[in-house]
Amino acid sequence: MKKMITSAFALAALASCSSQKPSASENTEPTKVAAIYGATNPKVSEDTQCIRYFGSVVELKGEKEKLYRELHADVWAEVIAAIAKANIRNYHIYLTELQGKKYLFSYFEYHGKDMDKDFESMAEDKTTREKWWPITDDCQQRIPGTAEDSQWMNLESLMHIK
After folding, report:
1. How do the domains of the chain map onto residue ranges?
2. CB atoms inside a 10 Å sphere around CB 30
3. CA angle (103 as vertex; 34, 131 as ends), nearest 5
């Protein structure tokens, strides 16, 4: 959860796609499509005082899976307290295997009013910062393209139905 808890969660809209198609011989990157908002994918502004929803992904080192499972089967009380103090609720981590690699997907809800301050409070928690994150980070492999200041790659919300 380390550096995942940053204001970087406020995902920026992706660049709009180009209407011009490249020729088959050109070396191209995948087309990025701008966010599309609607009834089941509402746009949330930074100053909104509603519940905010976050998802992220990181690779799990295969040889560290047992340790990671053990840690998360009985999360330390100090870490749980730091999560609660940061106004994080309904926090989940899921595990799956894709093409021979293990991936962790996280989901949580933020119920506070000052995300930067609340998320920073987790980094200020000594047990989380000096003990929990070093162990859990060592179990993870950052995915290429993850923001420089993050351990987990942010996921863009495409749909939300309450």
Report:
1. 7-155
2. 5
3. 110
Residues ≥6 apart with Cβ < 8 Å to 134? none
CATH topology of domain 7-155: Alpha-Beta Plaits (3.30.70)
In terms of DSSP bridges, do strands 101-110 and 88-98 run parallel, antiparallel, or are they unpaired?
A: antiparallel
Rounded Cα distance, 148 and 7, in Å:
13
According to the model, what pLDDT value does residue 49 have?
64
- Which of these, 19, 51, 17, 21, lies nearest to 36 by C-alpha position? 17
Question: Residues 65-92: pLDDT tens digits?
Answer: 999 999 999 999 999 999 999 999 999 9
Q: What is the pTM of this model?
A: 0.75
